[in-house]
Design goal:
Length: about 240
């Protein structure tokens, strides 16, 4: 579904991505793990058109989307729940969901919203509440729910567990696994909580200062001594 070939992305003179290649097959959960500043978020921003790639190619469903503007990429059914959630704080929960549905079939709105409320009952309880008054965990649920409203074929998640209590983190990951398993939704996720991410990922890549140093099945990387020492033990 998604193929990244020799992707290079710069921030000014700094080369954030140094020619990475990876792919995401339909129906998979693929995760990218790595330390702060490794280039994980840059990878996602390049896919969604927020940061232009210097060179290389990003292919979605056989189409080269490398040079497409961000709004055209969203229309291709790629949705992102960004790092830091970035919900609209002055809008209600339901208004945030309505904005997520802008590129979806309007006839499916009620059904899609009800499915989001089924996944996140807390959002249903707070549907008329302003986004800015929600807890961090509820805002993360809203960010994912808003992305799901666009009827995506590929869901991109940037640090979904960031700043959340362990119990909420487990809940978020259970829901990610559920939409993948029950709906066949393809997920590409960047995550610092390597332990949780590798538990649900079919495949995973380790990114170190802009280069992929290790790839394999989620379970294999979780058992790998180097990965355990660098990302799992004491985290």
């Amino acid at each position: 579904m998604l193929v990244i070939e020799n992707l290079r992305t710069n921030y000014g003179a700094i080369e954030a991505l140094k020619g990475i290649s990876l792919d995401v097959q339909e129906g998979e959960i693929v995760t990218l793990i790595g330390a702060n500043g490794a280039g994980k978020s840059t990878t996602l921003m390049s896919i969604s058109g927020a940061v232009p790639a210097q060179s290389g190619r990003i292919i979605f469903d056989g189409e080269d989307i490398t040079k497409l503007p961000a709004h055209e990429i969203v229309r291709r059914k790629i949705a992102q729940a960004p790092e830091g959630r970035r919900i609209f704080p002055r809008m209600t929960v339901e208004e945030n969901l309505m904005l997520g549905a802008m590129t979806a079939d309007p006839q499916n709105y009620d059904r899609n919203r009800d499915e989001v409320f089924e996944l996140f009952p807390r959002l249903k309880e707070r549907r008329s509440q302003r986004g800015g008054t929600l807890s961090g965990g509820e805002q993360q649920m809203l960010a994912i729910g808003r992305a799901l409203m666009s009827e995506p074929r590929l869901l991109i998640l940037d640090e979904p567990s960031l700043g959340l209590a362990p119990m909420i983190v487990r809940q978020i990951f259970e829901i990610i696994a559920k939409v993948n398993k029950e709906r066949g939704l393809t997920v590409f996720m960047v995550e610092q909580n390597a332990n949780q991410a590798l538990k649900i990922a079919h495949r995973a890549h380790v990114l170190v200062t802009g280069e992929i140093t290790l790839s394999g099945k989620g379970a294999e990387l979780r058992a790998n001594e180097e990965v355990r020492a660098a990302y799992l033990e004491g985290h």
